[in-house]
Fold this sequence. Notes:
Two copies of one chain form a homodimer.
Chain A: H1 6-27, H2 33-73, H3 81-116, H4 118-154, H5 162-208, H6 220-257, H7 262-289, H8 298-327, H9 332-357, H10 362-370, H11 375-388, H12 391-408, H13 419-437, H14 440-462, H15 467-516, E1 521-523, E2 530-532, H16 538-544, H17 552-593, H18 606-677, H19 687-723, H20 725-733
Antiparallel strand pairs in A: 1-2
Amino acid sequence: MNYFYLVPVASLFALGFAYYFFKKMMKESEGTEQMKTIAKYVREGAMSYLKQQYKVVALVFVILAAFFSVMAYFGLQNNWVPFAFLTGGFFSALAGFFGMKTATYASARTANAAKESLNKGLQVAFRSGAVMGLVVVGLALLDISLWYLILDRFVESAEPGHKLVMITTTMLTFGMGASTQALFARVGGGIYTKAADVGADLVGKVEAGIPEDDPRNPATIADNVGDNVGDVAGMGADLYESYCGSILATAALGASAFVLNPAMQAKAVFAPMIIAAIGVFLSILGIFLVRTSENADMKRLMSALNRGVNVSAILIAVLTFVIFYLLGFENWMGLSFSVISGLLAGIVIGQGTEYFTSHSYRPTRRIAESGKTGPATVIISGMGAGMISTFIPVVTIALAILFSYLCATGFDVRQMMSGENLSMGLYGIGIAAVGMLSTLGITLATDAYGPIADNAGGNAEMCGLGKEVRKRTDALDALGNTTAATGKGFAIGSAALTALALLASYIEEIKIGMLRLGQTVLEFADGRGAVEIGKAGFADFMNYYQVTLMNPKVLVGVFIGSMMAFLFCGLTMNAVGRAAQKMVEEVRRQFREIAGILDGNGKPDYARCVAISTKGAQREMLLPSLLAIIIPIVTGVVLGVPGVMGLLVGGLGSGFVLAVFMANSGGAWDNAKKYIEEGNLGGKGSDVHKATVVGDTVGDPFKDTSGPSLNILIKLMSMVSIVMAGLTVAWSLL
Amino acid sequence: MNYFYLVPVASLFALGFAYYFFKKMMKESEGTEQMKTIAKYVREGAMSYLKQQYKVVALVFVILAAFFSVMAYFGLQNNWVPFAFLTGGFFSALAGFFGMKTATYASARTANAAKESLNKGLQVAFRSGAVMGLVVVGLALLDISLWYLILDRFVESAEPGHKLVMITTTMLTFGMGASTQALFARVGGGIYTKAADVGADLVGKVEAGIPEDDPRNPATIADNVGDNVGDVAGMGADLYESYCGSILATAALGASAFVLNPAMQAKAVFAPMIIAAIGVFLSILGIFLVRTSENADMKRLMSALNRGVNVSAILIAVLTFVIFYLLGFENWMGLSFSVISGLLAGIVIGQGTEYFTSHSYRPTRRIAESGKTGPATVIISGMGAGMISTFIPVVTIALAILFSYLCATGFDVRQMMSGENLSMGLYGIGIAAVGMLSTLGITLATDAYGPIADNAGGNAEMCGLGKEVRKRTDALDALGNTTAATGKGFAIGSAALTALALLASYIEEIKIGMLRLGQTVLEFADGRGAVEIGKAGFADFMNYYQVTLMNPKVLVGVFIGSMMAFLFCGLTMNAVGRAAQKMVEEVRRQFREIAGILDGNGKPDYARCVAISTKGAQREMLLPSLLAIIIPIVTGVVLGVPGVMGLLVGGLGSGFVLAVFMANSGGAWDNAKKYIEEGNLGGKGSDVHKATVVGDTVGDPFKDTSGPSLNILIKLMSMVSIVMAGLTVAWSLL
């Protein structure tokens, strides 16, 4: 229990440093009056969007919380669930809000700093990104600590070992709150930002031939607002969810793996939290390591960033051994190697992403070259490359799953599926996911400073700060893209591992649901007799519910799960398409109707474009997000436990691969276009460039709306199933 | 046994009528000398491609057959396997060959007949399509009959009931031969046709602004050859495979479901064959019903086609009851309803496809409208619509699975997974697939005559037969597209159901493999003791191999299976992209270097374009096709039975949904373009039209290369796993 207090301490440390960096950033000058005004426009637009968004989402939360209260009233859930759910959503929203607030204050300051030097620009942008990273991990550990302390005080259980199972599975409901909030943030923000971006590009760049972020383009403010609500607030909520999800799912697995060993059980529950806490300290250390000499070039900056990330990663790998050893785990070596397999997997996936999406390598260059034969071949080759690129993450995750499982079970290959080993192995998989995300504080900082630099570039362009400044902010943005590839690898890899861990939590919750409804034994028809539920392992439940791959209910579930991934992407893609079309029409109308707009004399109506994106995003985000909540509930009622398990596995398999494909195709198109813009194959304005712009535009919803939302979708479907397990059990007993 | 002779009789009937229709078609005039010459060019190009293709594929077959012989030598398979495998491949190739031969003879004749009237054109094209339909079903039933008679004579088994299990599982290996051949045909043909098509369109239509099939376009002959090798020969091999696969898988399930009831076992094995045989007679009847008055309009023609298809479908539904009743099945009503659920599912999927891809409905019109904002929004909205469209086939197949399963087991919901019910239920699912494909003779005719009409149009264009003739062939083609939608629904739906049935055959083959290696009991660790393998049911094997959704090997298999679908599509998409680029460059070169080519004075070098497509297809088809064979083998060796089951389920879930998405997006883009070409939204040559041409071009590999190959991929992976089951078992015992 004493170890546990590291967690709230780390949380306060993270929040304290976040505040420190925020204050430091605020002391920088925001530059000229014009820069301040533009920044204010963007800030106000972003805040007003967020307010609108939170209103809609709050309504959804109130309805769901009411529903959970009814379930609790009928004994299908415990009474803490509605509250835990609400706090998860609240903290997730808070993380997005703080991150975005910081980003919108930082953009003009970064532009102003970039006037001085590249390094100065990096410092302001990166430290602001660090605020986001530290707020996310700080709030997550705060929420975890508070709920643990509350539930530890109030939850009572007669059976030894059962108390921690109750606590950890209840805490998963705040994971569901976080996931719900994150999905809305990603989908709403993603639609907003891409509608604005696509709209601005299609008319501005392609038709009118004016540069990006040109103040004559009416959609330009909306575009910059979009970067904040989508890439900053959306990503914040998303990673808050991933971080909490992996820790909570692993804690729940720890509670069940050590249910018969009360001495170790608490330690198994705390271990993921402690790894995360140590990760926070290392992240702060890493953030301070990101500094370089005043007149540093790109290469130096890059190595400064890498130094910060790598030092934290290596130290957490080393300290993991110490943590598991000090906690007194018998298999401390094995568990530590599980963590390392997770870390390594994240890095390999990141490198693979880099290879398939950076224009330093062949795949993206080929896409650029296919622009010679027009936009159609750009699309075909980009989709082809994206689909092929899925093999690296899949094979890596496959190896990480097997390796972390075997490490945790002492490489007992013949007996790897015995009851005890299954629990331990799954715990190993969970702990690998925690390892991947343990240094989120700094990896998120490297991810979040990109959009800040991007916005700074927008501000510089609109205020005419000159080419040199714009070039610097572009360089910072590009630098961020490279480190962000690793960050994305960690996010996507951890999602797959966490979703696996959540499968086990689902069974755990089914068990609790059965006990709550008074069922005490599992009776088998085939001569094995009965097993007491309290003593039953995962395998017993699989047998009891016949969750095998021959059960048609499982197979139907798999089909529906696979479909959910595609349906969800289809709905969000269409949403972007529709909203973007409205934006295009509006920008065309303004170019047509407002006199002198293109020679800089007429003033474009920015607010109208902001309103179109806001309205589009709000309207369009509801259906796909609600489907993610409703389909698992319906499947549970109609097809029972086997159907739900099939749904989750099908959604995980298809969703993971589809997410990688969309993210990588999108990234590769983006960079193929940049490759041309750097002067290759005819450069800007050539036909090849136009063809790659089409690819980039198609890639926008791929990589920033549908793709990243899939990670959350996969986990949210699992979380919903877990929270609704009581209903599924009750229904199947009817 | 007497019933069985219906099968060879039906086969001979089908082949006889195919010959009759072929002769009748050959009697038609081929038109002018120029028409004959063009047709000869296309025919020779197609035949020389096919020869080349068969050479490469024969090599693959020889290597695989040698490998199977080695396996047989070491007692890991029986001695019939290499031979069965080879005949499956041979007959599948033969079906493609005959179909293509007919099609290449029919095109000029159809064009010539269309000079006379629409109805005359339909008669020639449709009867030629019927040749293909009847050849496919005739050869399939011939192969099935021959092998059954041979194996019945030579296979010996001490245990009653075991003999038919041995026979049916051995026959599945010729299914693998058919699948392997089909995959090569689809992939090679698909790459060929789309490289030519995309290349011809990109330079001809978009850049030079000359119409489709214009003789000035050097790629135009290659394009017409492509229609034959891809859409005709590829489709023939594909559906031969689907047809055999569903019958053989169901027969194998019948043998195992009734293993303890020798009186009914033979009947359960024959039932799918007999349904197919009856379907052949009904198809021939239906083909004769497709006739109308001489001066019929489109609507009349449509209703003539529909009459043929509907009458056969309704009659087979009715006769199924009679068949099962006469065979003496206790649950004849239930099994018949299983068949009907399959038939209905095929129709619903077809209707759904029609809704999402025809420009009479909103989704496709919206895609056309999104062309107003350029090609990027066309791509985004087309992909969105395609992804959303997956929900109809998935929900339909889900219902068909549950319903056919429950019908076959007498709606015993509580006990649906008991040993006996599981076997019966799976048999029901298989029989639903057979029902779907039972009238393939006529549905394939309606599918195959489309490309013939398309080619006739090409011939008419190149020979300058005038707008009226071209209009008629276009009308025939469009008519074919509508009926083909239903055909595609049947193909894709039956693939999903057959793949499910093959899962069960895999377990059956594992059982045989264990027995062959001397293992006689399944020993369970958890106190259930041992079960004799001879008496063990599917559920016992699932327990023994721990094929549950918590087994990390299963989950890793699911990931890899999902990835396979994407990787395969990526490779084939890229192949088309690369080959098309080469074609574009060649066409551009010819336009540049051959003097007077565009004003009709210079003669384009058609042969060179044909050679480029041939070479591209041959080189590019190997990797994706071989992966489909190698990955299941490797998975079996590394991850054992649970890994393979995961692989198959993951591949099935993702592959099915991905296939629907790609087929429907591609179809919708095609028709969105046609909608514009009919004069809407600015018509031909407008910017909107150009934008939709980009969509159409991207859609080409979607709907004609990658999408349709996925159906085969799913089944081939299952077939490979089944044939390799002995190796997997032997390896796991090491």
